[in-house]
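User: Please fill in residues for this 650-position structure.
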């Protein structure tokens, strides 16, 4: 496929964009105290320009000096112009265009809002701004646009989405005013109307886009018909483009159109919203968004007229070179939609990416040349082992990667089996491609022994053999009807049972339950903690999983302790203290994993006598690196990061 639609040029006002790829505006959780662009964020944007983005839209910048309770980049004073000029220069020299997003945070991130009401969107009840105060904010937007013009930006985007100030103004649920700024549709639209008209009158040659929520998962909020009405109203003002988004009131709310769709639901979930707006406003450029990660799908949306451009968010966090790679048919580092990046912002931390350890560290990507070439033996081809092998091989080392199973990927392989984890299959494909493209030698079906290490005599040994499954010390746990979740995920056809109980309601237990249900099993989950997925703090992901479990009619038993495994299932103690029998043909252990050695990973390990294969292997080499779950069970992100660091250290 040529992707001719995705890589055709398009004009936004007088600005010609070389392709239809838009870097979506995203906060990165990293700011300078003086409200200028941090150097590492400028480099972050530049990397995406190098990667071939047609248009880059910045994260939002504050147009007012006081109405924000968190640090942001400023555009409310002329002193910020030099910093913006530096960003513009660094992006434009690579052929990308760049628009500055103008915003007011409103009650969501500050103490002021259109109305003083309690809302799940707000941390506390905000102060209602007076009409005079709001009048002054119109002028603040116009002046901010002027500074953007002076700094050399190719255009501006007015942020009217996600319940921030303008979004709240347009929402019947959040705007309860009875003055000129509220009470009916026209009055609710007065503020964004005055802002957009004011910018276009003052700067008629500038491209002005509008991002808005075409749907709010909020009682009494913007529904589909109202979203279309908003779009028609804004179009009539002469807007350059409409950037279609959505809003959920909180992370805990299940939304039909989640603004940051996680892996548990299909990709491209917001495209129907964009398509609806495009039909309503056929003569205006529409930008679609929402988990657009596959080039062929993006091209098809444009071809079918569902949208004119595609906004790529998490997609280009994972791979900043996505446009160029898509155009040239190269393998793309996939975004697996784990939403680690998104949740970091809610923790007030800089974003990070499971698949890209160099996010916000773009200047550190160059691999160091080793002092001498070494023979490196890596044991275990999970994410940590693969990343270490690839990085070490790229640096010029002679690398052999051993894996006892017939496939690579470690726990990612069984983890990709449930349909709700479909994105992990793309991660597996990427692991395999990375290995095939580097000079590392891969040996599958190879169980490494201490004697093999001694015979190979590597200069450096990397142990990445994975963790050990946690066990439950109860009578009957050794019975033949007990099996690990990994075994079931890898070979479900082997188990003809139709009634299963899963011990453990963490991520693996819940995902395994979905997989079994999809394959015709009747499933129950038993969890000793008060809630499922208690250790997963990513609320946005959990709420989608809970919806899946409900949809699939999975029986949930929390605060329930397993007493024994029987031939016909398990015996448990209910929260009431009553002993209860749960019937099942198959008992599945999903209690998690523990490390194989009693210390955390470090650069070079001096190891005393320890038990287990990992320790025995480690005794056979001078330079040893212990990485991944065998050292410290963690996420795929942590495994890839550990592998990258080990590959650089050797």
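Assistant: Residues filled in for all 650 positions:
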């Amino acid at each position: 496929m040529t992707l001719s639609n995705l890589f055709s040029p398009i004009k936004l006002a007088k600005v010609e964009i070389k392709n239809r790829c838009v870097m979506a505006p995203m906060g990165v959780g990293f700011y300078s105290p003086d409200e200028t662009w941090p150097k590492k964020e400028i480099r972050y944007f530049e990397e995406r320009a190098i990667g071939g983005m047609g248009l880059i839209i910045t994260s939002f910048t504050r147009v007012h000096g006081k109405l924000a309770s968190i640090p942001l980049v400023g555009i409310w004073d002329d002193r910020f112009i030099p910093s913006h000029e530096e960003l513009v220069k660094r992006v434009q020299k690579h052929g990308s265009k760049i628009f500055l997003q103008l915003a007011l945070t409103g009650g969501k991130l500050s103490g002021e809002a259109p109305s003083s009401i309690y809302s799940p969107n707000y941390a506390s009840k905000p102060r209602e701004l007076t009409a005079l105060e709001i009048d002054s904010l119109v002028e603040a937007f116009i002046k901010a646009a002027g500074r953007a013009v002076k700094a050399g930006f190719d255009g501006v985007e007015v942020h009217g989405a996600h319940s921030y100030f303008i979004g709240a103004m347009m929402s019947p649920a959040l705007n309860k005013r009875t003055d000129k700024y509220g009470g009916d549709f026209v009055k609710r639209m007065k503020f964004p109307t005055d802002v957009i008209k004011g910018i276009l009158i003052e700067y008629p040659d500038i491209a002005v886009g509008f991002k808005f929520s075409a749907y709010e998962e909020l009682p009494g909020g913007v529904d589909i018909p109202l979203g279309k009405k908003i779009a028609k109203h804004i179009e009539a003002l002469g807007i350059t483009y409409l950037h279609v988004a959505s809003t959920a009131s909180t992370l805990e709310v299940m939304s039909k159109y989640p603004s940051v769709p996680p892996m548990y639901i299909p990709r491209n979930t917001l495209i129907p919203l964009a398509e609806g707006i495009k039909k309503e406003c056929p003569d205006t450029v529409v930008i679609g968004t929402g988990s657009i990660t596959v080039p062929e799908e993006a091209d098809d949306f444009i071809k079918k007229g569902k949208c004119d451009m595609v906004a790529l968010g998490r997609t280009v966090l994972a791979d900043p070179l996505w446009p160029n790679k898509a155009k040239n048919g190269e393998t793309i580092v996939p975004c697996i939609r784990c939403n680690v990046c998104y949740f970091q912002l809610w923790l007030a931390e800089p974003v990070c990416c499971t698949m890209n350890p160099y996010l916000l560290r773009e200047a550190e990507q160059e691999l160091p040349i080793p002092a001498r070439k070494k023979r490196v033996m890596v044991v275990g081809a999970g994410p940590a082992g693969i990343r270490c092998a690839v990085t070490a091989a790229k640096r010029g080392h002679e690398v052999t990667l051993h894996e006892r199973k017939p496939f690579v990927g470690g726990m990612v392989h069984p983890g990709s089996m449930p349909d709700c984890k479909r994105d992990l299959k793309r991660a597996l494909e990427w692991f395999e491609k990375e290995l095939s493209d580097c000079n590392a030698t891969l040996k599958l079906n190879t169980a490494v022994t201490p004697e093999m290490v001694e015979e190979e005599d590597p200069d450096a040994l990397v142990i990445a053999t994975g963790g050990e499954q946690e066990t439950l010390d109860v009578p009957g746990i050794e019975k033949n009807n007990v099996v690990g979740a990994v075994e079931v995920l890898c070979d479900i056809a082997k188990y003809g049972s139709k009634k299963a109980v899963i011990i453990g309601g963490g991520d693996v237990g819940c995902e395994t339950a979905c997989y079994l249900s999809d394959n015709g099993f009747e499933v129950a989950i038993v969890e000793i903690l008060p809630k499922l997925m208690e250790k997963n703090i990513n609320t946005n992901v959990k709420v989608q999983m809970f919806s899946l479990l409900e949809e699939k009619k999975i029986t949930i038993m929390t605060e329930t302790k397993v007493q024994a495994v029987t031939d016909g299932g398990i015996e448990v103690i209910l929260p009431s203290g009553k002993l209860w029998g749960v019937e099942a043909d198959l008992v599945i252990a999903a209690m998690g994993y523990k490390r194989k050695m009693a210390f955390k990973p470090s650069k070079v390990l001096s190891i005393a006598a320890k038990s287990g294969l990992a320790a025995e292997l480690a005794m056979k080499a001078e330079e040893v690196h212990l990485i991944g779950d065998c050292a410290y069970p963690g996420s795929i992100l942590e495994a890839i990061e550990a592998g990258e660091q080990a590959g650089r250290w050797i």
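For context: The longest strand covers residues 207-217.
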